[in-house]
Write a structure and sequence with these properties.
The complex is a heterodimer. Chain A is an alpha+beta fold. Chain A contains one helix and eleven strands, in the order H-E-E-E-E-E-E-E-E-E-E-E. In chain A, a hairpin with a 2-residue loop joins strand 5 and strand 6. The model of chain A has no long low-confidence stretch (mean pLDDT 91). The chains are: A alpha+beta, B alpha+beta.
Chain lengths: 193, 229
């Protein structure tokens, strides 16, 4: 009978303990990495939606039918004489109206989000109840033209972008909400058609 | 199943030594740490990207305000204050214009003045996210302007600009319909090229701006000119 030399019990125990520690660390790390991936992905998505919101509000857009002035153009804020009223969203989706035309370029199928506390998970949650969500604007787009306006021609704009998918399961909802600010000049002399 | 190691003696087999197991564990640990580092780097890059996006929005905001100020008020006559000695002057100019500590009241009502020399007002005054802080101290040419890039994260940007006269040959200023008057609003003048610089990320600590080790810059250019409007 051949003699075989394997591990001793002590060696096996130590190796198993060392491997266990490494595997547990790895598993914990991988679970955390999934969270990091979600967070990173949400940041990039929110950035993209912020850019899209900015572009539509700055430059306007184009509809398929004619507006009041016979063109298909929605005039951006730079092409208006006065800022639109605050809001500009419908079920959290960006909704912009100009020239009697309305665009909702960033809308998805409705989902329901349950409010758990004030401003949680959505920034405009009142504490309880549920919200129907179809977009990425966590709060109303707001305009300020009555103060800090240069020659009455500039308007301050603030908008809040929220990731509606991640915010429902996030430990910290604030991670998936970000606020952007800019100023536009009102360059048009006539009222929006 | 193949044996993991060849027998070193006839009829005898040996497993891994403790040193081999520990070395393997070490290699695996290094791999995990490397993977973690890549996430940290990716997260930092994403944050840089978001910060840059905000800087672009803020640069746009400041450009819109400056353009309206130069085009529609007499700000261009005496308005901008010359400042010098910027840290990262290459490839950008070392001498630039900023809002002065005197405020904007000659050009707009005090309620509309969006500049302040108080860091406290800049931090928590009315409309704070849109204010421009004129940080003073020492010589006036060392004053600096700051705006909020992300107030929640205490990230500021330093604002400055330069003006260069633009005199295209085909435009005889003030006599052939050339739209650019002097900044006073009546006499002949010239159009100007406005280059705006927004440098970040500065932070506000104990009422003073701390300079980052790596200053990033967003710059925008446009043509401005006083109109008859």
């Amino acid at each position: 009978m051949r003699r075989q030399a394997g591990f001793t019990f002590l060696e096996l125990t130590i190796a198993a303990a060392a491997s266990g520690i490494i595997m547990l660390t790895s598993a914990g790390f991988l679970v955390k990495a999934l969270g990091w991936y979600d967070e990173l992905n949400a940041k990039l998505e929110m950035n993209r939606h912020a850019r899209e919101t900015f572009r539509l509000l700055a430059y306007g857009g184009m509809a398929t039918s004619n507006g009041n002035d016979g063109t298909k153009y929605l005039y951006g804020i730079r092409g208006r004489a006065a800022a639109p009223s605050s809001g500009l969203r419908n079920n959290y989706a960006l909704q912009y109206t100009s020239n009697n035309l309305t665009l909702t370029p960033d809308k998805f199928a409705a989902m329901t989000i349950t409010c758990t506390a004030a401003a949680n998970p959505l920034p405009d949650c009142g504490g309880s109840g549920s919200k129907t969500v179809q977009g990425w604007l966590g709060n109303d787009v707001t305009f300020q033209s009555s103060s800090r306006s240069v020659a009455g021609d500039t308007v301050e704009m603030t908008f809040t972008v929220t990731d509606p998918y991640q915010i429902q399961r996030a430990k910290s909802a604030a991670l998936f909400t970000d606020t952007y600010r800019t100023v536009f000049t009102l360059n048009r002399m006539e009222s929006d058609p | 199943m193949k044996p993991t190691r060849l027998p070193n003696k006839a009829g005898a087999q040996s497993g891994f030594t403790m040193m081999e197991v520990m070395a393997a564990a070490m290699v695996l640990s290094i791999f995990i740490i490397g993977l973690g580092t890549s996430w940290v780097v990716a997260d930092r890059r994403a944050n840089d990207l978001i910060q840059r996006q905000k800087a672009v929005f803020v640069a746009n905001a400041e450009m819109e305000r400056l353009t309206a100020l130069y085009n529609n008020t007499a700000y261009g006559t005496l308005g901008g204050a010359l400042t010098i000695g910027y840290e990262n002057s290459v490839p950008f100019p070392a001498s630039r214009l900023t809002y002065s500590s005197a405020g904007l009241s000659p050009y707009m009502t005090s309620g509309n003045d969006y500049t302040t020399t108080s860091s406290a007002t800049f931090q928590s005054g009315t409309g704070a996210p849109f204010l421009v802080w004129v940080a003073t101290g020492g010589l006036g040419t060392a004053n600096r302007n700051y705006v909020w890039l992300d107030q929640g994260q205490n990230v500021m940007a330093r604002l400055s600009w330069v003006l260069t006269a633009v005199t295209p040959a085909q435009c005889v200023v003030g006599s052939d319909g050339c739209p650019c008057l002097g900044f006073g609003g009546s006499l002949a003048g010239s159009c100007q090229k406005l280059d705006l610089f927004l440098e970040y990320p500065f932070r506000l600590v104990s009422g003073a701006a701390t300079t980052p080790s790596n200053i990033r810059t967003v710059s925008l250019s446009t043509i401005i000119g006083r109109t008859t409007r």
